[in-house]
Amino acid sequence: MDIIEALEILSGVIILLIIWMVTDIIGSWRIFKKAGESRWKALIPFYSTYTMYKVTWHTFAFWVYGGIIITNVLCSYLSQANVIAVLGSFLALTTLGIHIEQMHRLAVCFHKGFWFTVGLVFLKPIFILILAFDKSDYTYVKTDSRLLHEIKNNLVVQTENHKMKLKQLSEEKDETKKFAQGFCFKKVFIFFIIGCLVGTYWEEILYFFTHHFQTTDRQGMLYGPFSPIYGVGISIFVLLLGKNNDKHTILKTYLYSCLIGGVVEYLTSFIAEKCFGVTFWDYHGMFLNINGRTTIPYMLFWGLGGLVIMKVGYPLISKWLEKIPLRWGNIIFRIFFVLFMIDFILTYSAFGRMALRDNGVKPYTFYGEFLDKAYPDDYMSKKFPVMNN
Question: pTM (2 decimals)?
Answer without folding.
Answer: 0.54
